[in-house]
Amino acid sequence: MSSENTEKKPRVGGKGPAPSGRLHSHDSRNCSAPSKRPDIRNAGKGSASTLPPGGSGSPAPRNVRALAHSFLLRCETDERYVNIALDRTLRDLRLDSRDRDFFTALVYGVTERRITLDYYISLLSKKPLARLDPTVLTALRMGLYQIIYMDGVPDSAACNESVKLVRRGASSAAPFVNAVLRSFIRRRDELRLPDRSADPYGWLSVRYSVPAELAALWCEQYGEEQAERCLRGMDEPPTPTLRANLIRIDRDALLKRLEQDGISAEPSPYSPHSVRLTAPCSPASIPAFREGLCTVQDDASGMAVEALAPKRGDTVIDMCSAPGGKSFAAAALMHGEGRIMSYDLYESKLSLIREGAERLGIEIITAAARDSSQPDPDCIGAADCVICDVPCSGFGVLAKKPDMRARVGERIADSELPQLQSRILAAASLYPRVGGRLLYSTCTLNRHENEEQVEAFLAQNSGYSCEQMHTVFPDPDLPAYLRTDGFFYAVLIRNT
User: Fold this and answer.
1) What does the alpha-carbon distance between residue 370 and residue 349 come to, in Å, rounded to a whole number?
2) Is residue 80 situated within a structural domain?
3) What is the pLDDT of residues 55-94, one digit of tens each?
4) Is the dihedral of CA 164, 169, 171, 173 positive or negative?
């Protein structure tokens, strides 16, 4: 699964760190308040506006909450990702910018913090969550999210408006919703997370709103300290990273152009060809992006292509290439000289590659539909470099895709995914010439899909050696605009 070009939506809210004692015990080893969000998450289209701070002004109109409530109910049974359904819904609703931001904040916020919200509901409700009407449960989640995470919404408004939502479809439950939310408001200082010493996976799960299965997996593979650092590093999504299109411009010139257009950016500390936006901004709104001077690519993904080091005149094969970010990065490093064959299983995705190449002025990319798990005799020994960015569980991009959290358990249990990765890697290994290089990469943090895949491949293929293998962890000590996705890559050399 490729990590580049992931669109992020505007999100509103964020009360800053919780006061001492609020929603946690004084022993920080065991309990701590849920993390707050910044006022605005990066906008997918256009700039987002904030809600009035500290409860000043009026909250968003009641109908926006009703729309969000209906949308979240539909998502309970809709198998599409929330972001896909949300884009379509926002186009249909045609909300003004403020209502759009509030709607999006509720949808993404409730989706992302569902585990934490459900935990507190379970503490306050005499009925098990499984027995609650979905209309009621969704209203409770929305109310709690506003109380905990959205400074622009007074607690009383969050409670009252949630009660009104229930009266529309389950009027008899209105007193229950009112009682649960007001109980939370009264008791917030005494409510505690699971005891960390007794239940570390449960504590991490509720604290960071991820399934306990993921907390357990990362603790077992990377240790509890690194697991928590990963979760802290994903508590805010990184702002977009722009990669200079070296065919047309270098990084210094790109920075100057962004400054001229009033876009705040800094040189990336990870790549000599990338810049980091220091404030949320939609790439589509940036003139330099529209003119093909840069593309969007997370630094972790860009570093992987730089490690592969394609050069002028090379022949490159990009397996599983849509939406094309790594092909574009390779073409830039090749200064538009050579040949790149970009493959994807689905013809419908190839338009993303072709459109991106046209915008960037890249003429050396040929996009074609192909099953990358099946060897292609025409490609054997034909490439100087091969990019093998395989489908993966995607645990490295949870900060960008909040609805993915609900699917973590099934992805951990998916035994077919590692098998598919292994088949794609085996096919890709046939394509480099002797002395050629093969990049294996994922946007996940899971040793079963990463290190163990490479180790198993090398054990069965003595003609290959590993030049480097690297896991990129999101760094919680950096500001959000400097963080990367979680990512893994290995560069393999064909020796015989």
Assistant:
1) 12
2) yes
3) 334 444 448 999 999 999 988 877 566 877 888 888 888 8
4) negative
10-14, 89-93, 294-298, 476-480: lowest mean pLDDT where? 10-14
Q: What is the DSSP string of 377-412?
A: GGGTT-EEEEEEE-----GGGTTT-GGGGGGHHHHH
Strands 487-494 and 432-442: antiparallel
Tokens standing for residue 182: 């007001």
d(CA 271, CA 411): 31
Q: Which residues contact 130 (CB under 8 A, 6 or more apart)?
A: none
Q: Between the CA of residue 324 and those of 5, 6, 342, 348, what are the distances in Å?
A: 9, 12, 8, 13
The angle, 0 to 180 degrees and rounded to 10, between the axes of the packed helices 155-169 and 134-149 is 170
Residues 175 and 269 in one domain: no
Which tokens sit at 30? 């065991």
Same domain flag for 36 and 179: yes
Residues 247 and 325 in one domain: no
Q: What is the number of helices (H) and of strands (E) in the chain?
A: 18, 11
Cβ–Cβ contacts within 10 Å for residue 428, how many? 28
Under DSSP, the state recorded for 285 is G
- Residues 354 and 365: their CA atoms lie apart, in Å, by 8
Q: Are 159 and 178 in contact (CB under 8 A)?
A: yes
Tell me the β-bridge partners of 244: 294
Of 271, 297, 323, the one marking the end of a domain is 297
Q: How many domains does the chain have?
A: 3
Per-residue pLDDT reduced to its tens digit, 289-309: 999 999 999 999 999 999 999
Structural domain boundaries enclosing 53: 1-193
Residues 289, 339 within the same domain: no
255 with 140, same domain: the answer is: no
My answer on whether 260 and 178 are in the same domain is no
Catalytic entry in 388, 392, 443, 466: 443
Residues 446, 475 within the same domain: yes
Residue 388 annotated to the active site: no
Q: How far apart are CA 207 and CA 154, in angstroms?
A: 23
